[in-house]
Amino acid sequence: MDTRLTAEQDEIRRTLRELLRKRCGPGEVRAAVDGPAGYDPLLWSALAGRLGLPGLALPEAYGGVGCSVTELALAAEETGRFLAPSPLLATCLLAAPLILALGTEAQRAELLPRIAAGSLTAALAVPGPALTTALGLTRRNGEYSAGGGRAGGVQARRAADGWRLYGEAGQVLDGHSAGVLLVAAHTGGFTRPRTLLFLVPEDEAGLTRVRQTALDATRPRARVQLRDVSARLLGSEEADVLPALAGAGDAVAAVLAAEAVGAADRMLERTVEYAGQRVQFGRPVGSFQAVKHRLADVYVGVQAARSAAYYAAWAAGRGERAGGLALSQALEALRCAAAEGVQLHGGIGFTWEHDAHLYFKRAAGDELLFGPAHRLRDRAAEAAGLFTGGKAGLLTGGEVAV
To answer: Which spans are transmembrane here (predicted)?
Structure first.
């Protein structure tokens, strides 16, 4: 693996950072999340028009740039630095790769160019207790089912005009504002149960979307209810949906890890800056050895997480899976950076109005949505075959795995 950035990669990062520094300060972030969409549509249009961000990892045949997961991770690191609210995660990481992998040629030609241009946003509605279950990040998703009968989930049944959906999905990222929903639904009854994906336009009759209150307002989510909603099947009935979800999950984890690294790095920068300005006992608090040690620990954690995130993004382009482990390390680095930031900002850092709490909420919210970190590591260890012979945690010779 060559850790040096290419000229194109460096230009993507530099241009995006300059744009976000001008358009995405803490005041703009707070104003954007309070808007109807939960993000700034004008900023999203600028990111699409100037940088081609929505189509960065889409093939050129569908209007994309044709870059790899690595470039998308570098872009996400910059959006993470500013906590920029945008449809990037829901549209470009969750929905678009599934449309590309499973959709018919007609469906790809219809949807992907609009996604790449930034004129269409999408959201993946996955019923169940956690999105990470369907993506295979915290456990194998081979037994995942999108429906639970009348008790929950989403059911799909055939009708004269195609397919009809009934049910509910909670915690759908950007589900209240997406132009099209990609809904995972259970079909086949008890005899041939399986999960399929369906396309539902935002204005379909019987569709109800309610934005929910979230700890991290920069990741808006919604409860999606479907009452006899007409839907189009994505691809064919023979599509292997669960393997496609698991395959997308690793790339999602790698990019999320880079995003968390960007947020942690920015929080560290702001804390170091404040520690150099705040004076106590006649000297800056940053000059005290105890404070230096705490900031050094955060720095080491951020750099280690960045290395893991970059490797995971590079490995995803080669068909290898390292995203879950990188995400676990990045979530811990962000949690540590945010907690130390609140502490070392002193009394002002404990007020909800301070910007440090935007990062603190992002750290806590991401752990709830995509973690916790120890479950991500457990799944990575299981996938690597470290736990064998029914003796979880033990290697040959009786040595404990760490």
So the answer is: none
What integer pLDDT is reported at residue 35 of this predicted model? 92
How many domains, the chain?
A: 3
CATH number assigned to the domain comprising residue 337: 1.20.140.10
Residues 362, 289 contacting (CB under 8 angstroms): no
Q: What is the DSSP string of 313-374?
A: HHHHTTT---HHHHHHHHHHHHHHHHHHHHHHTGGGGGSTTSTHHHHHHHHHHHHHHH--HH
Residue 99 has pLDDT above 90, yes or no: yes
The arithmetic mean of pLDDT across residues 168-194, rounded, is 88
- Contact between 144 and 138 under an 8 Å Cβ cutoff? The reply is no
Task: Give the per-residue pLDDT at 388.
Answer: 65
Q: Which residue has the higher pLDDT, 331 or 317?
A: 331
Please count the other Cβ atoms lying within 10 Å of the Cβ belonging to residue 335.
23
Range of the domain at 307: 243-390
Q: CATH number of the domain that 150 lies in?
A: 2.40.110.10
Q: Of 67, 101, 119, which residue constitutes the final position of a domain?
A: 119
N- to C-terminal Cα distance for the chain?
A: 25
243 cis-preceded (ω within 30 degrees of 0): no
- Neighbouring-strand partners of residue 166: 155, 227
Tell me, yes or no, whether 69 and 153 share the same domain: no
Q: Specify whether 233 is located in the same domain as 249.
A: no
What is the per-residue pLDDT across 265-319, written as a single tens digit (0 to 9) for each? Answer: 999 999 999 999 888 888 988 889 999 999 999 999 999 999 999 999 999 988 8
Same domain, 279 and 217: no
Q: How many residues does the chain have?
A: 402
Q: Are residues 147 and 230 in the same domain?
A: yes
Confidence at 190, pLDDT banded by 50, 70, 90: low
Mind listing the pLDDT tens digit for each residue in 112-142? 999 999 999 999 999 876 788 899 998 888 7
pLDDT of the residue at 344: 92
Residue 135 lies in a domain: yes
Determine, yes or no, domain membership for 48. Answer: yes
- Burial environment of residue 229 by CB neighbours within 10 A (0 to 12, 13 to 18, 19 or more): buried
Same domain? 236 vs 250: no
379: left (phi over 0), alpha (psi -120 to 50) or beta: alpha
Do 247 and 380 sit in the same domain of this protein? yes
